[in-house]
Amino acid sequence: MAEQITLAEIQDFKGKYPKQLWSLFFSEMWERFCFYGMRGMLTYFMVTQLLMSDVDANLQYGATQAFVYAFTFIGGLFADKILGFRKSLFWGGILMIIGSAILAFDPHQFFFLGISFTVVGTGFFKPNISTMVGTLYKGNDTRRDAGFSLFYSGINIGALLGGYACITIGKEYSWHLAFGLAGIVMAISLLTFLFTQKSLGPIGLAPSKDDDIKDISADAIGDKTAAEPTAIVRKSINKKWYDYAVYVGSLAVIPVITIMVAKTQYT
Q1: What integer pLDDT is reported at residue 206 of this predicted model?
Q2: Ramachandran region of residue 14, left (φ > 0), alpha (ψ -120 to 50) or beta?
Q3: Superfamily of domain 18-209+251-266
């Protein structure tokens, strides 16, 4: 079995860009295709298909975007303290795919439910992939700016393609297809990350504050006691419960967001 690449090996890359940047580039590009494709359809769909007034549609669009940016903070916090960047990113991608699938199935009946899944999913996905890009570089590496410039060009490409393709397909063909396209592209984003994540080595595997198991392992080596392996297992089990709590909590908040976005008097 091949040994996992180390962080030092990743950061000691030759050339202008680390190879790992390209997998993150394409994952983010397709995620932004999904996000901006959905975003571009919202107001137009609410006015022409849900027959809302311009004022109501703009209010609900504003509420949706407010929740998106609020959850990018919350998703980043949970990733940093509990899940780690990779689990958070993957969970966010799953929620975005579910939201797109709901909208593709019946965008008129389940519009706000599908949007709420996408809101929470974006919060878990967006801030954490950007953080992983920064980790590819040492703190004093002057190539970091070029790496982020390339990464953000992927964001712009995805936003341009998604914003144009989804609204065009919705207007000319079918809204089911338009929302379905956003979901398919999000699945491509997630699969791109899934099949290339081995090249990231330890990046994003553990929360930034998750040093307790490492400390216990070091003690076990020094003391050679039988109690320490039990402590390691106990810490691991506790961490899993924290992970499950985040997953369940993020699902539980979706109905609340659905109500608050649909009824803007609550926001």
Answers
A1: 86
A2: beta
A3: MFS general substrate transporter like domains (1.20.1250.20)
